[in-house]
């Protein structure tokens, strides 16, 4: 299942409205099929893995990070039916599908066909790996990551607005990897007007994975392919966007935090002190300090050259 979860990450930010599922097929201790949801959502992970395994899938163990789909689609075969046709020994599922068209119907269909099914293997990791799709189904909006590059004293720029560069090469390279793992990337109108950012991915081998640029606010001078929304809540209307990366600026960050629409924080901290610079986050309407506690839990801490990356997820 750990391998299936790792494979699911390959599809993150590229599967449209579909979940980024991973699948591994094992027979007599040998991996005979691997798959992950392909760009645009098809083929599904199970379909790809079964195609690799071929007739050898009969009597094998199938590990999949989300319940195989059970609803009919004009875009491709139903995975639960394809698995039944393959006649595996058993199917191991990390988490149930959040889509009511499939939830429990996939595993019930497999069980009715006489195929043993186990559910809940490494479920927390699976929900984290496919959090974009789950957020879209359960919260009716994309999963939102807020990214900030900060000095030690919490500044994102000098007082005159200059910010290139606060962090070093390795931190910026990691930030571009995060862009490549996102469906869309958003900045505020002020940042767009001041910096005219391209918001693309400039890492070798990943340049084709640049996310859809979005602006919070209005700017008629932005290129036609940029999407423009009026408020954080409008991200619910962004079609086929499961993973949204918010990059700037301070008021945009504050607006998403105040709306309770940030699920994950990426804080890149550089070992510099600016003093009198521009704060990374604007006023979020906090009235009591006690209300700030217990909102976030740190899930990762890693050095990136001279900088440090802290990753936090919402605690509740």
UniProtKB/TrEMBL annotation:
Pathway: Cofactor biosynthesis; riboflavin biosynthesis; 5-amino-6-(D-ribitylamino)uracil from GTP: step 3/4; Cofactor biosynthesis; riboflavin biosynthesis; 5-amino-6-(D-ribitylamino)uracil from GTP: step 2/4. The keyword Oxidoreductase applies. Keywords: Hydrolase, Multifunctional enzyme, NADP, Oxidoreductase, Riboflavin biosynthesis. Pfam families: dCMP_cyt_deam_1, RibD_C. InterPro entries: CMP_dCMP_dom, Cytidine_deaminase-like, DHFR-like_dom_sf, Eubact_RibD, RibDG_C, Riboflavin_Biosynth_HTPR. SUPFAM superfamilies: Cytidine deaminase-like, Dihydrofolate reductase-like. Its EC number is 1.1.1.193, 3.5.4.26. NCBIfam families: eubact_ribD. PANTHER family: 2,5-DIAMINO-6-RIBOSYLAMINO-4(3H)-PYRIMIDINONE 5'-PHOSPHATE REDUCTASE (PTHR38011:SF7), DIHYDROFOLATE REDUCTASE FAMILY PROTEIN (AFU_ORTHOLOGUE AFUA_8G06820) (PTHR38011). Converts 2,5-diamino-6-(ribosylamino)-4(3h)-pyrimidinone 5'-phosphate into 5-amino-6-(ribosylamino)-2,4(1h,3h)-pyrimidinedione 5'-phosphate. This is Riboflavin biosynthesis protein RibD.
């Amino acid at each position: 299942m750990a391998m299936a979860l790792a494979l699911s990450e390959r599809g993150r930010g590229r599967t449209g409205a579909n979940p980024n599922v991973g699948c591994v097929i094992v027979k007599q201790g040998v991996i005979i099929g691997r798959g992950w949801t392909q760009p645009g959502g098809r083929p599904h992970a199970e379909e790809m893995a079964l195609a690799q395994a071929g007739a050898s899938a009969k009597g094998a163990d199938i590990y999949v990070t989300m319940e195989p789909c059970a609803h009919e689609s004009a875009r491709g075969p139903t995975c639960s039916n394809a698995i039944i046709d393959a006649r595996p020994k058993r199917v191991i599922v990390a988490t149930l599908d959040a889509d009511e068209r499939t939830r429990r119907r996939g595993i019930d269909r497999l069980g009715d066909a006489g195929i043993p099914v186990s559910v809940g293997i490494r479920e927390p990791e699976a929900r984290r790996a496919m959090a974009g799709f789950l957020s879209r189904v359960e919260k009716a909006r994309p999963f939102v990551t807020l990214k900030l590059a900060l000095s030690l004293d919490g500044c994102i720029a000098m007082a005159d607005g200059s910010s290139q560069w606060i962090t070093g090469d390795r931190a910026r390279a990691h930030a571009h990897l995060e862009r490549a793992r996102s469906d869309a990337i958003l900045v505020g109108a002020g940042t767009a007007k001041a910096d005219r950012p391209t918001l693309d991915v400039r890492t070798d081998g990943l340049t084709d994975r640049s996310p859809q640029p979005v602006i919070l606010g209005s700017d008629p001078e932005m290129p036609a392919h940029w999407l423009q929304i009026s408020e954080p809540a409008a991200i619910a209307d962004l079609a086929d966007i499961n993973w949204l990366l918010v990059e700037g600026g301070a008021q945009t960050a504050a607006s998403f935090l105040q709306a309770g629409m940030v699920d994950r924080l990426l804080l890149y901290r550089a070992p510099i002190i600016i003093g009198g610079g521009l704060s990374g986050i604007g006023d979020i309407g906090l009235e009591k300090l006690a209300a700030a506690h217990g909102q976030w839990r740190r899930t990762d801490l890693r050095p990136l050259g001279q900088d440090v990356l802290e990753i936090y997820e919402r605690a509740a």
